[in-house]
Amino acid sequence: MAFLNSSRFLRLSLTAKVFTRFSSSNPRNGLVLGVYTDADNNGVQMTPCAQKYNECSNGKLMEQIRLAGNEVKAGKTFVFWGLDNEFQSVAVVGLGKKCEESDDLELICREKEAVRVAASAGCRALDAAGVKNIQVENFSDPESAAEGSLLGTWKFQEYKTKKEAPPQIALFDPQERTACAWQRGVAKADAQNLARRLADTPANLLTPTIFAQRIQELLAPLGVAVTVRDHKWAEQQRMGAFLSVSRGSTEPPKFVELALDRGGEGQAPYVLVGKGVTFDSGGISLKPSAGMDEMRADMGGAASVVGTIFGLAQLGTPANLRVLLPLTENMPSGCATKPGDVVTARDGKTICVDNTDAEGRLILADALCYSAEFKPEWVLDVATLTGAMRVALGNAATGVFSTSDRLYAALQSAGSVTGDRVWRMPLWRHYTKQVADHPAYDLNNVGKGKGGGSCTAAAFLREFAPPHTPWLHLDIAGVMGPQDDTVYLHKGMTGRPTRTLIEFVEGQVRGG
User: Fold this and answer.
1) Range of the domain at 71
2) Is 361 within a domain?
3) Catalytic residue among 361, 390, 462, 499
């Protein structure tokens, strides 16, 4: 129930009670229930909700399970029809063994992840069968159940002329405690789905100007202060690195600042910075054409931090938060920055741009410099920064570089809870030398050694992070999508690691 204020909770709880039962006159009502694999792999063990339903149906549910083979493997679903007059279809989904041995190496809470997978599988099965009113049991973890249900049934179909109607999903038999936890899961899933929608939007329909407008529309009603800065302001701030990236595009850059002030007065804010390249052609260092369309999501870092502040605002989290979004396109033209050009960042450091396709670190450099103005508690940036991170970790985890052991440990714990893991990478001076050891200028935007591209990029950013302030850099290039094996996400941009960031910030508010 943490962070949901009483009036908001009452509203959500009443909403949940409205959906406790759908009208029995509608023949498209469905219910998702769970079963565990028996400890001896001999049959199934019902969850408390499933057991209660079985009793009310005079044992019909268990009878159908036995007829189906008395085995429901983890993540697998059986749909049964006509067991009662209220729910014409019941999806029974496997949760695996109830008490599996923990595996510390996996860095993931298996029980929570099993619930997400099960809830998603059950809702998808009913949706595919044409059932559009779905109630989901709480699986003894209503927050994870809500996440799996809403993440699993959301699809990006903004520009289809004939859209598939999404199912209406609610909690089965809500009580006050479970309804509140369910709504927390709904808020977190909605936040990630927002990031997914932004990241998958075509670049011509989400330019820096449109993106800034969309942010205003989404966040201002939630009490988030939105300030949109223009090219002239960036010039006055001497953001030469940021502006060097925008030079090749006819779309004007924007620098968006978001403020959520719900913590104690005088409390130092947390600062999130999101890379916002709304389309990355590579500039003069042009990318190959194959797969270039995916670069509409090169603003995935900005999308995830927008989703984060959206979720925290919905949850009523008592935090002082600043979000900085440098938004631009990276395009080739006669005005574009050329390989070998030298630009000057906000803090006066000179940068030789040897590769215009290493542009994300340039716009983040000026944003990180600017973050010092807020005297923050800590700074965290998120970016689809390097293809090398995708090579290193695939889509299994977000790569993290940090100057703080404590903050990294908290982030790792958050990733375990959400099922969206992180993994720490080295931030050694060895990599700093590869970007900073030059006689003619202060830094190069690419390392002069072979390999370690993610590490040299992080070393470059470290030069601009506020001194004496804990800092984390999240490279999400591997987890951005569109290919992802997270079973409760449809193909497309993933919105990762939005829920991990929400969990992390909430932990910081609690003093974690």
Assistant:
1) 20-173
2) yes
3) 361
